[in-house]
Amino acid sequence: MTKLGIYGSLGRMGQAIANVAPEEGAMICGGADIGDDPLELAKQCDVLVDFSAAPAIEAHLAAARAAKTPIVIGTTGLTSAHQAAIDAAAGEIGVLQTGNTSLGIALLAKLVREAAQRLGTDWDIEIVEMHHRNKVDAPSGTALMLGEAAAGGIGSTFTEAGVIGRAGLTGARASGTVGLASLRGGSVVGDHSVVFAGNGERIELTHRADDRAIFARGAVRAAMWLAKQPAGRYDMGAVLGL
Ligand SMILES: NC(=O)C1=CN([C@@H]2O[C@H](COP(=O)(O)OP(=O)(O)OC[C@H]3O[C@@H](n4cnc5c(N)ncnc54)[C@H](OP(=O)(O)O)[C@@H]3O)[C@@H](O)[C@H]2O)C=CC1
Ligand SMILES: O=C(O)C1=N[C@H](C(=O)O)C[C@H](O)C1
Fold it and tell me: ipTM of this complex > 0.85?
């Protein structure tokens, strides 16, 4: 059985992963949270998953590198410095980073890219996400991934085309942009909609997560797959063959 270690083991996702791991063929070999030594955990496991908090990522990557243990990073709210640390670690160990481990979102990202490419910039693209009241980062990592997919479809990047939130005298909407709005409330597990708004018609592609178990199963499957890969940086598309 694959020995799986969890950074953020006491959190919502950490507990969901511990619940589904046995049915996916993995054994939880331990967990680390605030105040625990990340290296101790990394040395004991075949593969790690990280669902903790962005400020902890660099220490967790350093521990994974030191122990030569591959790591799945599901934590969101990452900066460009975090992305650079992931790229550096991927030179030595397997690292799979994704804002969403569900099958549905991996497929949605492909559909969004294709729709954006086929429709072109005559159709305006807007993304809306909603999550529970305890989520600490915005926009969601998933919404940013979908934004990147949409921007890629129109030959751009989300850094160039993204407009996060609007307020005040914004002026008319610029063509070729990708808007993104975040809602927070209640116990919503995770809803994402991508709206393609044309003249006189509208297409909406929506994914709704009803249960964190979908993310947890995807994370365990990703970890078991990653444990067999050489060093490098991977995403969910590689795991799911999309
Ligand atoms: N990729 C995906 O598919 C998904 C990603 N996520 C992301 O996963 C992350 C965790 O989400 P969720 O489980 O809901 O959050 P929680 O707040 O429920 O859990 C986070 C856990 O990490 C611990 N933690 C916080 N800071 C550190 C630190 N510096 N070092 C070690 N442990 C730390 C917390 O401890 P304490 O409680 O003591 O602060 C807590 O146990 C978020 O970034 C979220 O966006 C969530 C769902 C799916
Ligand atoms: O914090 C959450 O709960 C979630 N976070 C991820 C994100 O930021 O996209 C994935 C999922 O939507 C739930």
Answer: yes
